[in-house]
Amino acid sequence: MMNITPIAHSSFLIETSERYLLFDWAMGSLPAMGSDKPLYVFVSHSHFDHYDPKIFSLHAEKFILSDEINDSLARRDDVIHLHVHQSISIDGMRIMALASNDLGCAFVIDTKDGSIYHAGDLNNWWWDGDEEDRKLADFYHRELSLIKGKHFACAMIPYDLRIKQPDYGIKDFLQYCTAERIYPMHWNASRQEVMQRIKTDPVMKGIQNVYF
Predict the structure, then answer these.
(1) pLDDT per residue over 92-125, tens digit each?
(2) DSSP letters of the chain?
C-alpha cells in the first residue's frame, strides 16, 4: 500500500504498509498519523520553503537531511546527513541522494511497497532559455541518467508557474523513468491555476497519471 497526501508546496506525507515518510514539511498542517507505524522525516535542502526546524518537535524514528543542513538543531543522534550520490540502507529502505542543480538533493527511496522520487529543487529550471538555463538542463539530465529505466510508484516533481516552461521537469523525467503517479509540486501559484495550466499545456498532453 502507498497512501500519498500532498500538504503544501513541496511537502508530502506518504504512508506505506510499514511506515510514514514526511517530505520537506515547512508549510501547511500536518495530517493525522496513526501511532502504529514509525515516522521518517526527509528534508531535501535548507531553503525556508522546504526546511523548518519545527520538524524536530515530531516524534520521528529518523530525520534524513541533505548534508548542507548543518544548524545546531540538526546535530542530533537521530539525524542522518545524506551526501550527494550517497546511498544508504536503513530499516528496510534503500535511500539515494541525487545532486540538485539548486541546493541540496533529490531523494530516491526504495521500499517494499514501491519506489518514491522526491525532487526537492532538482528540476529543469527553464526561465527564459538562456545559457544558464541550458546548463541547468544539462545538469538535470545528467542526474536523471543515474536512475534511467527506474520505475516509481510516485514521483513528486516541480511545476513552477513562475518559469517560462514549468512542464520541462516532468517531461524530461518521463524520458528517463516511469511513474504510476506524478505529483506536480512547488507551484508558486494556486491549485486552480496549476490545474488549468496543465489542462491546456501542450507539453503535458497525454500524461494521464497526474495527481494533486
Answers:
(1) 999 999 999 999 999 999 999 999 999 999 999 9
(2) -EEEEEEETTEEEEEESS-EEEE---SSPPPP--TTS-EEEEE---STTT--GGGGGS--SEEEEETT--SGGG-STTEEEEPTT-EEEETTEEEEEEEPSSSSEEEEEEETTEEEEE-TT-S---SS--HHHHHHHHHHHHHHHTTTT-EEEEEEEE--TTSS-TTHHHHHHHHH-EEEEEEEE--SS-HHHHHHHHHH-GGGTT---B--
